Amino acid sequence: MYLFIHRKDLRVADLRAFDYLRSKDAEGIHLLIIDPALTAQGRLTSHSGRNFVGQAASLLHSYAKAGKELHVLYGDPVHVTEALLQSHPIDEVVVHADYTPYARSRDERLQQTVHRLGRRWISIADAPLADLEAFPAYTGRSEPYKVFTPFYRMWSSFIMQSYNPMGITTIHDLNTVREISGRVAVPFALPEQIASALGGTAAVEGSVKSALLLDRFVREHLAAYAASRDAFAEGHTSGLSRFLNTGAISARQAYEATEGLPGAETWLRQLAWRDFYLYQAMYHEDYFRYEHLSDLSALTDKHFGAWASGATGIPIIDAAMTQLNRTGELPNRLRMVTAMFLTKNLLCPFTLGEQHFRLNLSDYDNTLNRGGWLWCSSLGYDAAPYFRIMNPATQSQTHDPVGSYIRRWLPHLAHLSDKEIHQPLSGAIVDLKASRARAIDVYRSIAKQPIVQA
């Protein structure tokens, strides 16, 4: 008997672990653990939390539709796993690898517990499109890449030569255990609020909906993706990120549906950026601790509240933050614009913006979110140079000349002309030109400082 634990893989097809488990030809307990460390402090009711609950509910529905059993428990994953190993004749625990600091610490504790009880621990890479565990040997480099462009060239070559296609195993091919011991089910039962949320969520939020979105994107938007993806008022992007980041759809499915089609090259580059950030998390230990390695004491949280609530007086910033706070959605171009405005024009530490996105982005992912914030704040590898500071008014004019987006989210400004609607209001909290000059001075100083060795 095996134990398989779902994490960022909330689907029932094309999982590397499923291919492995099918070869074992044994029955297994399939489990999803609601971890208090990741869901406490209002996380489950945030936009990101509600997205997770929706995908988890869809996963339950998919198991039930296939006539299989997914057990959902609440508690510390180590304690839950230990209880199951002590109550069932499980000989191995199988998971997909994760690379965040919390995930690494959790999995180290899990592995120690599994080995202490004399069982096998199997961790299988699944999240990246490329096999990033095999990639370093292919590159022949002694050190990991730090810059995206050479990474992308080698990554593209690796994909062409060594791509491992979607797996053929589905949950239908596996034999799941129907009941688990009451010694586990009772003490780790779901709190009523979480059980109710899982039971009351529409069942089409996950794999079914993501497949429909992918099909529509390929038919309607892929060919023009390179030219239209930054037109944030038009909604020509795929909308798949919140499904990719929970694993409701795999990066392989997103790649194979578009391979060789017009527009696919630009789409593939976006998947490569996703892999690049996962690669950083895997091979650069500083990735999650840059705020501790640089002196950011010149930065302040003075204007953070105005930024977070959409009250800066810069129309495109306030419109974007309004959309984010209300819906959990934010076009990628506006993620860069708002993040760079916070870190540069407002001289606010990137960590505060990162935390705000954590709660408010429906598609929140720790690794990918951090990658974007490090880039915008000129920290980390291959980040934007310290002197690159997007002008939000110019960005708005360039990508939405008639101001449709601002009119949608800030209807009280709809009366302004197409030219006026992009410009800062009279009560704006900063002057764009002056704050840009100040930011260049501050970030030049930060960039010149030696990295603190932890």
Automatic annotation (TrEMBL):
SUPFAM superfamilies: Cryptochrome/photolyase FAD-binding domain, Cryptochrome/photolyase, N-terminal domain. Pfam families: DNA_photolyase, FAD_binding_7. Binds 1 FAD per subunit. FAD binds at residues 225, 237-241, 267, 270-277, 363-365. One of its GO terms (molecular function) is DNA binding. Keywords: Chromophore, FAD, Flavoprotein, Lyase. Residues 1-129 form the Photolyase/cryptochrome alpha/beta domain. Its cofactor is FAD. Belongs to the DNA photolyase family. This is Deoxyribodipyrimidine photo-lyase type I. It comes from Paenibacillus prosopidis.
